Amino acid sequence: MAVPLYQAKAEFFRTLGHPARIRVLELLQDGPLPVRELLAALDIEASSLSQQLAVLRRTNLVIATRDGNTVVYALSTPDVTDLLLAARRILGEMITGQRHLLRELALPVAASEATA
Fold first, then answer.
1. Are 22 and 16 in contact (CB under 8 A)?
2. What CA–CA distance (Å, rounded) separates 35 from 32?
3. What does the pLDDT read at residue 111?
4. CA distance linking residue 104 with residue 63, whole number of Å
5. Cα–Cα distance for residue pair 95/106, rounded to 1 Å
6. CA–CA separation, 62 and 24 (whole Å)
7. How many CB atoms are located within 10 Å of the residue 94 CB?
8. Is the pLDDT of residue 57 over 80?
9. Torsion-angle region of 65 (φ positive above 0: left; ψ -120 to 50: alpha; else: beta)
10. Structural fold of domain 5-114
11. Cα torsion 81, 87, 88, 89: sign
12. In the chain, N or C: fewer CB atoms in 10 Å?
């Protein structure tokens, strides 16, 4: 039996429901990165990063390639970047009454996300 589209969308958004997964996707917006660079940019254990990357791979949001002993991750489609930008716009509209969050959203992407 086929899964209804609304259910598939709900599963998709549940995949995005973890802060580490969102941060990985944000980091990959500028291009592919090896696991060691992702780990250096995130404040999580290597095992946790591995679990989060596995979820993103299973849902085809990221792809992994090998370069010798190094595993490099990349977004599977530029549409992921569009989705993250749309989320920023929606959040901006939702928090107009919360000035401190608006100020943080106004910062350049790299600076504002590094403080999150």
1. yes
2. 10
3. 55
4. 30
5. 12
6. 9
7. 10
8. yes
9. beta
10. Arc Repressor Mutant, subunit A (1.10.10)
11. positive
12. N
Q: Which two tokens stand for residue 40?
A: 């250096």
Q: Give me the mean pLDDT over the 16-35 stretch.
A: 96
Residues 67-114: tens digit of each pLDDT? 899 999 999 999 999 999 999 998 888 776 677 766 777 887 765 555
Instruction: Report CA-CA distances (Å) from 112 to 6, 39, 49, 74, 91.
Output: 32, 19, 21, 22, 14
How far, rounded to the nearest angstrom, does the alpha carbon of residue 73 sit from its chain's CA centroid?
A: 12
pLDDT digits (tens, 9 = 90+) for 32-42: 999 999 999 99
CB proximity list for 36: less than 8 A, separation 6 or greater: 70
Domain range summary for the chain, segments of one domain joined by + = 5-114
In this structure, which long-range contacts are made by residues 56-60, counting pairs with CB atoms below 8 Å and at least 24 apart in sequence?
56/15, 56/21, 56/24, 56/25, 59/12, 59/15
